[in-house]
Amino acid sequence: MQSILKYIFIVLICGLPLKNLYGQDPHFSQFYSNALYLAPSFAGAIEENRVSLNYRNQWPAIPGVFHTYSFSYDRYMPNFKSGVGVLATYDVAGSGDLSSTNIGLIYSYDIQINQDWHVRPGINFKFTYLGLNYGKLIWNHMITTGGTTPSVTPPPFESVADVDFATSVLAYNDRIWGGFTLDHLLAPRQSFYGDWDTKVPIKLNLFGGFQITRRGRLIRSSKYSEVLSVAANIMYQDRFIQSDVGLYYYRDPIIFGLWYRGIPFITSQAGDAVIALVGIKTKDLHIGYSYDFTISNLIASTGGAHEISLIYEFITTSIGARKRQFHAVPCPEF
After folding, report:
1. Distance between CA 67 and CA 56 in Å, rounded?
2. How far is CA 319 from CA 110, 143, 258, in A?
3. Is residue 329 part of a domain?
4. Domain span holding position 183
5. How far apart are CA 191 and CA 173, in angstroms?
6. Rounded to the nearest 5 degrees, what angle is found at the Cα of 67, between the Cα atoms of 65 and 68?
7. What does the pLDDT look like over 212-234, one tens digit per residue?
C-alpha cells in the first residue's frame, strides 16, 4: 500500500501543468541555524565572523529527491555598526531535477534605541536561477499499464534567471527578540514558457521569542550556561500559512528542542509535523541534527525529514586591537 501511495504522489506531481506551476520556498526546521535565510537582519549578529552550512532531506521515502542546501558567511563591522554577508541556497525536487538557486548579498545596520533595545533593519539583493531537466520527468504511462502521455508541450527554456530583493527588521534586548521579513519583493519569474505573469509570490515571515529562564553566566561572556527559550515562526505565502512553535533547552554544551508545525483548529489534520532537535554548542562550533515526525495524512508515506546544521564562528581581529561592546541577539543558534 505504501508503494502505491508513492506512485500516486509522483503521478499527481508530474501531472501538474508546467506552464503555470506555482511553489513555495523551501523551509528549514532549524531556522535560527540558517539565520540569514530567515532574515537579512541577522547578518553580523555575532561577535565577528560566522560560516553556516545547512542540509535538509525532505520526504526521503518518496521516490525522487527533495534536497535543500545552504551556505552563508557573515561578519560584524563594529566601526560601522553594520553586518555584511553572502547567502547561497540550492533546492532540488522531483525526478525532473526542478531546481532553484539563489545567491544574495546581505547588509544590516544596528540601531540602539535606548540602553536596552536595539533595532536591526536588513536587506538582501539576490540573483535567482530556476532549472529543469525535462527529459528526466516521469509520466503516468511510465508507471502504470495503459497510462497515457499528457499533452504537454516541452518548454522552450530549461532555465530561467532573474533578480530578487528581501528586507527585514529585527528588534531585541538581552532577553526578547522579534521581527519580520518580506521576501520576493521583485516577484522574480518562474515560467519556463516565458510567461511574465507567472512569478514567485511574496513571502512574509513573522518570528520571535524570549528566554523564559537562564542561569550561570559564562566567564568572560554574555552567554549563560543554562537557558530555556520559547520561540515561534509564522510564514505566509500565496494564501498558504504555516507556523512553528516550540521550546529550546540549552545546558552547556548540549541543546534540545521540541517543535510543533501546523495551524491548530484551522485544518482537519492534527498538524504537519513534530520536530525533535539535538545539538552541541561550543565556543566556536555548533552542530545540530533534527528530525521532522510527520503527523499529517501523509504520515505513512513521507519518511519525515532529516536536517543537519554546522556553524563555525571565529575572530580575526588582532590581539590588542580596540573592540567596541557587542550586543548579542538572545535567540537560539538552531
Report:
1. 6
2. 25, 65, 40
3. no
4. 2-19+40-314
5. 43
6. 160
7. 998 877 655 667 889 999 999 99
